[in-house]
Each structure stands twice: as C-alpha cells, then as structure tokens.
C-alpha cells in the first residue's frame, strides 16, 4: 500500500502493545502509556522490530490493520496515538 502524498509505502499491519493474549481470548487488553503532559497514549508501530526497540523484545502485541488504530485509540480511552515513538528505558520489557 503506497501513500500518494509522500510516495512512502504504508505498513499492512500495525503492532499495538498489549497484555499477553491466549489462543482462546476474543479480546486484548491494550497497554497505554502516559505522555509528558499526562494524557494517555496508544502506541502503534510499523514493524515488530520498532516495537521491540521501544518496548523490549518480550513485549506482547496485537497486529491490526493501520486504519483500525484510531478506533482502538477511541475505544481504549487514549487521547492520542504515538506512531513509532522513541524508546525510553522505563517502557522496555527485556526480562
């Protein structure tokens, strides 16, 4: 899928951090983060590598179509979506 405005290729899957999901689970619990100004943010990543870089290699996630991310933001109560945010040490799960 190509973005006509920039010519860049958009991802086919967005990866959103979640609590671990079992094979019989029909819903996922998304992990939200607090921004510097206190808003809740839903993180979304364009690749599993970028998710691991930010959140750690053991971070669970769900894969969704990119056009579904804003709906997830709304349903989760997050104020914003942060795409491919820079890593911070307090967000990583490498244990």
From TrEMBL:
Spans annotated as Disordered: 1-26
Top-level lineage group: Bacteria
Name of this protein: SseB protein N-terminal domain-containing protein
Organism: Allosaccharopolyspora coralli
